[in-house]
Amino acid sequence: MALKLADYKTSVHNDWCPGCGDFGILNAIQMALFELQIPNHKAIIFSGIGCSGKSPHFINTYGIHTLHGRVLPFAQGAKLANPDLEIIAVGGDGDGLGIGAGHFVGAGRRNVDMPYIIFNNAVYGLTKGQASPTLKLGMKTKSLTQPNSNNSVNPISLALVAGFTFISRSYSYDVRHLRDVLKKAISHKGLAFIDVLQPCPTYNDINTREWFQGQDNLDPESGHQSPRVYKIEDKGYDGIVHQSDQTADKMAQVLSIANEWGNKIPIGIFYQNEFVPTYQERIAQRIPNYPLEPPATEPICTQDGVPIADITQLLNPLKLES
Amino acid sequence: MTDSLVKNSLSWVIGGPQGSGVDSAANIFSRACALAGLHLYGKREYYSNIKGEHSYFTVRLAETPIHSHVDDINVLVSFDAETVFRHGHNVTKGGALIYDSSLVGTSLDEVPTIDEHSATRISDMLKRSGLQTNLQAVLDLAKSNGCMIYGLPYFEMIEKLARQVNDPALSKLTRMVNVIALASSFALLKFEKEQLIRAIQNVFRAKPKILDNNIAAANLAYDYMEKKFDSSGFRYILKLRPPLTNYLLVQGNQASAMGKIVGGCRFQTYYPITPASDDSEFLEANQIFDLTNERKGSIVVVQTEDEIAAVTMAIGGALTGARSATATSGPGFSLMVEALGWAGMNEVPIVVTLYQRAGPATGLPTRHEQGDLLFAIHAGHGEFPRIVLASGDIEEAFYDSIKAFNFAEKYQMPVIHMLDKAIANSIKTCKQFDSTLVKIERGSLVEKVYPGTQTGSAGHYMRFRLMNDPISPRVPLGTENAIFWNTGDEHTEEGHITEDPDIRVKMVTKRMTKLELALSEIKLADKISQFDIGDSSGEITIVSWGSTKGAILDALDMLAKQGKKIRFLQIRLLHPFPVKEFAKLISDARLLIDVEMNYTSQLGSLIRQHTGRDVDYKIVKFNGRPMSGSEVYYALSAILEGSSERRIVLEHGT
Hints:
The structure holds 2 protein chains of 2 kinds.
Chain A: H1 22-35, E1 43-47, E2 62-65, H2 71-81, E3 86-92, H3 93-99, H4 101-110, E4 114-120, E5 123-124, E6 130-131, H5 155-162, E7 166-171, H6 175-187, E8 191-197, H7 209-213, E9 229-231, H8 247-258, E10 265-272, H9 279-286, E11 309-310, H10 312-315
Parallel strand pairs in A: 1-2, 1-3, 3-4, 4-8, 7-8, 9-10
Antiparallel strand pairs in A: 5-6, 7-10
Helix pairs in contact in A: 1-6, 3-4, 4-5
Chain B: E1 6-7, E2 10-17, H1 22-35, E3 39-45, E4 54-62, E5 73-78, H2 81-87, E6 91-100, H3 116-128, H4 135-144, E7 148-152, H5 154-164, H6 176-188, H7 193-203, H8 208-228, E8 236-237, E9 247-251, H9 252-262, E10 265-270, H10 277-285, E11 288-291, E12 296-298, E13 300-303, H11 307-319, E14 323-328, H12 330-345, E15 351-356, H13 373-378, E16 387-390, H14 394-411, E17 415-420, H15 421-424, E18 426-431, E19 485-487, H16 501-521, H17 524-527, E20 528-533, E21 540-544, H18 548-561, E22 566-571, E23 573-575, H19 579-585, E24 591-596, H20 602-611, E25 617-621, H21 629-641, E26 647-650
Helix pairs in contact in B: 1-6, 1-7, 5-6, 6-8, 7-8, 9-10, 9-14, 11-12, 18-21
């Protein structure tokens, strides 16, 4: 029996602020799971800490709400121990690019087959609006006492140099676009990054929904408001590495648009490269039975609890009788 | 005093610059002696350095099992001047000092790797004896102590060897010095040459070219020594014994890693750190292993970007049902504690193998201490259950690493398995590991959940169901009909966030009562090991934990020979503390003596906390060097004679 969209929702009370960009992302995740018809018990949503960290509780799959900044290693651990699971990692921009930035880079080097969604609103919401690593230098949201004195990190460029093999951006109020990107990210063979721009209606009074829609961004000719977000594929951008020898050019292409911001913000798939072996494939190279019997399912004892590992070969060189 | 020969009882030390083959020489020596039927305990001491600093390896030999080193040296084998400067004066009467004869003119200030403090100590010692501060003076001092000295022209010997095997390039191989020095000590000990050759073959099995050169070098040095020197005055001799059947010659870090393989650990994460890395590297080197059913098993070892990733990744693995572990040392464990609390909160079974080294901060990265006991017990904010289990020696390390997983899964909590540098970097002849002595107990692990299983208020499976039994069934992620949540927040029975005061009380109580359950179920033998000498009824009782066990057992052996009656309690389960059993065992103790490798007597404070009883004497050591059997013996003797301070700080070791 086909699963319905409602099957991916829980009745847990959602306490996000009205108008929060998180809702769009939550809906898009549920829609992507539904459209891909992933069995509920096969999917595990791992999250970090903060408003976005609560997401798993609203999705009717396994949900593991971890620690601040640590969602990626928790999620990779589960995926490597049982590659059969459909694991999705989610977290905030402070979570993933501030306290968890080391894991972001570490994960890129591994290329474990799973998507990682960053809910990017440029502020630490749940601690009341401090500047996050993606807030631009000199910006002063209403929640800050002083303009931001740190420069911002560019998540797209960072993902690229860290080695993510699918790099994308979407916008939380374009749920369809986000859903489509998510579906591609989930289906991608390798580590996929989705940078989701979202307003924080409570603390970020700069990058608001109106700002993204371009209320103040008038076309000089027509006088109409011009949305800041544009889809790169509409401009003929193709981020997919179709042959492995295109890798360097495609990577350079990402950097050519990654810094666009202000009146023109690119969304879409910046880069996808399935020629890089996943971490699971790298393990399978060393351990041929890994795909069939990964750590989670390999038997370790008989029904009576007798260990089945036989270490005679390891003990022989240590033995003393000749 | 007669100068009769001492047979098969020896303290042998080999030293040289790090990277010059000290370890492989000690390895060959140990292997040769163990294959010859001798029991041994060996320990490695080294600087946090790759090449050049002083490192040495002590091997103690006996006809019966031994558990520690002693401070005296009977045979000192040196490659360089520094080894002679540092250890020469410790060689006993009738012992031997083998050195490079080309170095006799070396003065103390010509050895840059001897730090200022050590240099001052050595020069003070020489000056007190009215000697100059050069190598010849140390040799003279050793001679006046009754030690025999044997100068060998190492480099001439290597050149000769190069001509002999017709390989001029060999003359540059200063590494050959180690085998030359080692072989000459065997000649001196009248150890059968065939046994030495056999051990070299054994060690270099996989490297035929190196093997041949080493055998040639060993032959050359052995014969040279026999011909050149009259060994009268040297009192030590090694004789072949019946083979040690059912024994292994094994290192600590191999033991714990092998225990993990037998115990079903299939996922280990780590970040490189001394002295814990060897554990993970052994597992990685042996990632595919045999199963009893003719198939192959495997373990996935992942090197992470830091220790936080290591522990959280292990937790992720454990959530899928895989027995998962990480291995680290103090600095890494410090980074892991937040996640440890998460595992405690969410009742996830993980094992952290904690190889202690001297702290705090970077501390003495390659040296020994037992400074992390109270830290392991209290690591993390808030209150959550964990089990802390400490092994006392290599053999225990093997079995305990299996038990650690059993405890973790049965009680659904993190287990900290405490080992230390002394265990990790020591080598010992110990009884064959027997996998049939242990069972794997997975606790309440449910692999199938039927639809319609009782659900909680949000309609979901109750992973943390509140029942009389504080252990609720655990299901691996991905199990059908059992969708649950985990969170670092306080949670409901389904695992959703709650701040409800009533549920909070119930959940904290559920988690914490698991410790009482563990205390009631864990066998006495896994809580406390009791050793009574001379039919002791416990009037004099020594308490300790971890690797000091070896030195204490050897000291007790000596005291038993004097007819002393002493009880030794080795606490193995440190948390939850086995109060009831412990209180009973010390109920007749007039003297309670605490022995630990730290400044504050951490076990002593734990005993005070749980029993209200202060220990009467504290024997502590925190100079980074493990306690020797002899210094523990002297400290205990002083206490028994009533001539001791209440707190004795041991200071031996180089």
